């Protein structure tokens, strides 16, 4: 080996030194300067850990002056290499190796292999596995649905898949109480962010739910939202960094933050959002005559954002006008006339009859004219729902169709009416809430409901009970009495608490070990919060609004409740409380069966009901009978009309079950568990057994990098079991789409780890000294994430195994089999081998590149055809749909046409990327 002054060499013992230049040759010693680190090193020539740097045609090089060239020719003059290449202006120039930039990074597999930078075979196998897993996830139909810590419920999975895959979705989520609208919104956001369809998200929620949303999004979906309140915004204003809403990608705040503050409104509107989410949207004030400030602000946001999710009560709860107002936010061009909207809704009953007939395999005679009667009934049903139904912008599942809910068991607890209440002069409020006139807590001493509450809670220990009353003063007084005078572990939840204090109270109640036995809530506790871990609901009073009563019951009667809901209603005999209880129980049957049309029924009978609350008389039985008949008729009308269409379109159960099966198949085997163990071994992270399908990851002193995703200094406990993750919030739920997995895979993919290896192999019938080259390529398509080109053109790993004659042996010797046979080679032996076979490696690389390019020529047209078939079919469907269903927005069609054209351009310009090389010598 000859060393000459000016030659460039690299150290395979320490690649961080950069490019070295020979500055001295003295007998058996050679001295190199490493300008990148400002050091000189002297080596014995016989065993110097050095490799001569030789770039080849097609390599990219940089000079000390910052000129970048693509090498076109390599010559040697007086022992020094001369590189000829083209710069970015396509101008040709020649530079000496003396002029090369010292900050060279040998990262390509071929550079590292030929310069003696070898990885362990385990790292090579990890790289191959990583690329195969990434390809599989890109092509999975359940992409974007695997990473949530939720039960896999068909109606939620279907809505998340249907809405999440749309460009700029604009929909109304109006599932009945207890069906998990917040979870659906989280799953949609997670999918939109993961797939690149959205990057900037604004979520507006009531103040009482801010921290609940913050925690839910992080715990269930690994979504990190910035919580904006007045104090934080003021601090950001003082920093002088411009619009605070432009400084975070995902923002969570209260709608009240913007009311009476035009400057904040202007900032939010100017920030530009891909997706805006509004919870409890039915509280926005609107009427045909006037819109409230809150509605007008959301309307302005809706006009300047591309995606919009509204979470709201069911349409029949809020009335047709209010329901129309929500739809108008989604698409003002489509929903511009209230009268026309009401007229359209009247026609849903006939469509429901047609849908039922098609579901039975019958083709109705009065099908719409745009539908081909020759098609099979299932296809006609799809078209009917798609073209004439409401499911494009509105999703509403009911408890009756979802099923799986617990029974509601009513317990009536009559108590004597105290004389102090009976003699008091009362108004409407005091009839239902007799303690309300008292300015102090003296009513606690004689109200029989208080003693009943104390005795009952002590008797049911340790079972938890949620207590709800209408007024905050009542809740505070009761909680103090239970805690201080009765010795019952309790917490209060009412309007006067800060958001953090409410969260603490809810967490104290939820704690199984040392938590509160009871949580005493004012009316705000009946909306948004979920306490399905308890089975006892104690209603200290009843609200004069059936929807509020349904909300109260819905805190326990919801998805995830494992026992029957025991509803205890306390009432004073002969009082208005007893009358209201009878009306709810015998008129609407609200305690045993959820009724989303409760407020509609209430408004119909409000005048008669109020009269009976003031003075119950013989007309009350007639009121009960009329209410029961009207309730039955209303429920039937809802089922016959819009309900049937909505429910068919809000959950296609066969589609949902297929997606759930795909997710479960990826969770049930041990592939992810084994892969994460291999990742930990490669990066020096300790992986300890905790329990079945649960491990503890801890940093070690031998970590390859200073940080491993998701691993804290104290260690991180992860579980691969969805069931266990749902039961144990302290465990990280490790999935293929969890940030730990995703970021670790990116670390492998984006670095040189495992991209070059050398080993030996014994093969019968193959002469010793035979050289095999294992090469792994992927398809490299540079395109914006939002286009989702990888759906049609994924990484597509191409593995080749080329022998001395250029024959391709990959199919005969699979990668997994090869890993069990290959043997390590000592470093100095490997370096000696590589120096002798560089020309042979170059020749085999030429053969491998040719084979891979030939395969790419088949892959790209197939990918474009697949893209045009899938997106073209969707475009044709939406174009036909828009002719009869105006809920399809023109911008959706325009984006789809643009996406087809752009995807085609990027697919045609895709190329190959060499990901890994392994040189194998037979022995």
Automatic annotation (TrEMBL):
Residues 162-333 form the Helicase ATP-binding domain. The keyword Amino-acid biosynthesis does not apply. One of its GO terms (molecular function) is hydrolase activity, acting on acid anhydrides. It is an enzyme of class 3 (hydrolase). Its EC number is 3.6.4.-. Coiled coil: none annotated. ATP binds at residues 175-182. Gene3D superfamilies: 2.30.30.140, 2.30.30.930, 3.30.360.80, 6.10.140.1500, P-loop containing nucleotide triphosphate hydrolases, Tandem AAA-ATPase domain. Signal peptide: none annotated. GO terms for biological process: regulation of DNA-templated transcription. A motif (DEAH box) lies at residues 279-282. Keywords: Activator, ATP-binding, DNA-binding, Helicase, Hydrolase, Nucleotide-binding, Transcription, Transcription regulation. PROSITE patterns: HELICASE_ATP_BIND_1, HELICASE_CTER. Residues 449-599 form the Helicase C-terminal domain. Belongs to the SNF2/RAD54 helicase family. RapA subfamily. Transcription regulator that activates transcription by stimulating RNA polymerase (RNAP) recycling in case of stress conditions such as supercoiled DNA or high salt concentrations. Probably acts by releasing the RNAP, when it is trapped or immobilized on tightly supercoiled DNA. Does not activate transcription on linear DNA. Probably not involved in DNA repair. Interacts with the RNAP. Has a higher affinity for the core RNAP than for the holoenzyme. Its ATPase activity is stimulated by binding to RNAP. This is RNA polymerase-associated protein RapA. It comes from Mangrovimicrobium sediminis.
């Amino acid at each position: 080996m000859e060393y000459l002054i000016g030659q460039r060499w690299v150290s395979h013992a320490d690649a961080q030194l950069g490019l070295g230049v020979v500055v001295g040759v003295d007998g058996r010693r050679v001295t190199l300067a490493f300008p990148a680190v400002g050091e000189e090193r002297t080596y014995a020539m016989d065993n110097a850990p050095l490799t001569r740097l030789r770039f080849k045609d097609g390599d990219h090089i940089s000079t000390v002056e910052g000129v970048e060239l693509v090498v076109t020719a390599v010559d040697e003059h007086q022992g020094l290499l001369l590189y000829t290449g083209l710069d970015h202006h396509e101008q040709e120039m020649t530079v000496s190796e003396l002029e090369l930039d010292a900050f060279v990074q040998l990262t390509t597999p071929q550079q590292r292999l030929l310069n003696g930078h070898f990885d362990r075979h385990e790292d090579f196998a990890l790289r191959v596995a990583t690329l195969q897993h990434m390809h599989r996830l890109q092509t999975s139909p359940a992409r974007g649905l695997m990473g949530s810590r939720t039960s896999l419920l068909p109606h939620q999975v279907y809505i998340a898949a249907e809405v999440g895959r749309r460009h700029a979705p604009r929909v109304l989520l109006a599932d009945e109480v207890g069906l998990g609208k917040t979870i659906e919104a989280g799953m949609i956001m997670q999918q939109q962010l993961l797939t690149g369809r959205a990057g900037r998200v604004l979520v507006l929620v009531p103040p009482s739910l801010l921290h609940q949303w913050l925690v839910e999004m992080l715990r269930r979906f690994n979504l990190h939202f910035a919580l904006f309140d007045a104090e934080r915004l003021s601090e950001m204003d003082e920093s002088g960094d411009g619009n605070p809403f432009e400084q975070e990608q995902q923002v969570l705040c209260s709608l009240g933050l913007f009311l009476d503050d035009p400057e904040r409104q202007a900032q939010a509107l100017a920030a530009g959002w891909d997706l805006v989410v509004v919870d409890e949207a039915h509280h926005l004030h609107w009427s045909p005559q006037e819109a409230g400030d809150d509605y007008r602000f959301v309307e302005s946001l809706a006009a300047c954002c591309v995606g919009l999710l509204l979470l709201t009560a069911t349409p029949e709860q809020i009335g047709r006008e209010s329901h129309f107002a929500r739809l108008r936010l989604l698409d003002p061009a489509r929903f511009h006339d209230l009268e026309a909207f009401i007229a359209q809704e009247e026609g849903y009953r006939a469509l429901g009859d047609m849908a039922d007939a098609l579901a039975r395999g019958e083709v109705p005679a009065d099908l719409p004219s745009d539908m081909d009667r020759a098609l099979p009934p299932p296809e006609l049903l799809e078209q009917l729902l798609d073209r004439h139904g409401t499911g494009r912008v509105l999703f509403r599942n009911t408890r009756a169709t979802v099923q799986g809910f617990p029974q509601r068991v009513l317990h009536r607890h009559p108590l004597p009416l105290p004389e102090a209440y009976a003699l008091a002069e009362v108004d409407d409020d005091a009839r239902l809430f007799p303690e309300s006139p008292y300015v102090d807590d003296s009513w606690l001493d004689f109200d029989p409901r208080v003693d009943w509450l104390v005795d009952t809670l002590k008797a049911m220990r340790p079972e938890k009970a949620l207590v709800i009353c209408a007024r905050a003063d009542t809740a505070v007084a009761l909680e103090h009495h239970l805690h201080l005078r009765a010795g019952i572990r309790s917490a209060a939840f009412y309007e006067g608490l800060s958001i953090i204090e409410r969260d603490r109270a809810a967490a104290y109640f939820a704690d199984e070990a040392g938590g509160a036995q009871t949580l005493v809530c004012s009316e705000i506790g009946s909306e948004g919060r979920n306490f399905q871990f308890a089975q006892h609901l104690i209603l200290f009073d009843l609200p004069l609004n059936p929807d509020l009563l349904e909300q109260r019951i819905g805190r326990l009667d919801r998805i995830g409740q494992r026992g029957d809901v025991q509803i205890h209603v306390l009432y004073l005999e002969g009082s208005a409380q007893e009358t209201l209880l009878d009306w709810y129980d015998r008129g609407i049957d609200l305690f045993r069966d959820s009724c989303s049309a409760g407020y509609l029924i209430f408004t119909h009978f409000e005048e008669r009901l109020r009269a009976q609350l003031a003075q119950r008389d013989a007309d009350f039985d007639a009121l009960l009978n009329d209410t029961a008949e009207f309730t039955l008729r209303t429920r039937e009308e809802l089922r016959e009309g819009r309900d049937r269409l909505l429910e068919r379109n809000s959950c296609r159960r066969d589609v949902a079950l297929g997606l759930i099966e795909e997710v479960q198949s990826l969770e049930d085997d041990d592939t992810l568990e084994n892969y994460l163990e291999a990742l930990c071994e490669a990066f020096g992270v300790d992986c300890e057994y905790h329990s079945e399908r649960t491990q503890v990851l801890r940093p070690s002193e031998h970590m390859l990098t200073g940080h491993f995703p998701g691993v804290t200094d104290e260690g991180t406990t992860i579980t691969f079991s969805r069931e266990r993750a749902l039961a144990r919030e302290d465990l990280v739920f490790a999935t293929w789409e969890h940030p730990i997995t995703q970021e670790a895979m990116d670390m492998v993919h984006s670095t040189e780890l495992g991209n070059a290896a050398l080993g030996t192999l014994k093969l019968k019938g193959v002469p010793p000294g035979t050289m095999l080259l294992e090469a792994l390529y992927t398809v490299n398509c540079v395109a914006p994430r939002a286009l989702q080109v990888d759906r049609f053109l994924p990484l597509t790993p191409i593995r080749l195994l080329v022998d001395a004659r250029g024959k391709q042996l990959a199919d005969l010797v699979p990668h997994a089999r090869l890993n069990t046979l290959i043997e390590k080679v000592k470093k100095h032996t490997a370096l000696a081998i590589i120096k002798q076979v560089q020309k042979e490696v170059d020749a085999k690389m030429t053969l491998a590149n040719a084979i891979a390019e030939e395969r790419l020529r088949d892959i790209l047209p197939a990918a474009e055809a697949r893209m045009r078939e899938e997106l073209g079919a969707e475009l044709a469907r939406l174009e036909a749909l828009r002719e009869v269903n105006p809920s399809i927005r023109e911008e959706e069609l325009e984006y789809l046409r643009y996406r087809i054209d752009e995807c085609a351009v990027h697919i045609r310009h895709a190329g190959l990327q060499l990901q890994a090389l392994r040189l194998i010598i037979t022995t």
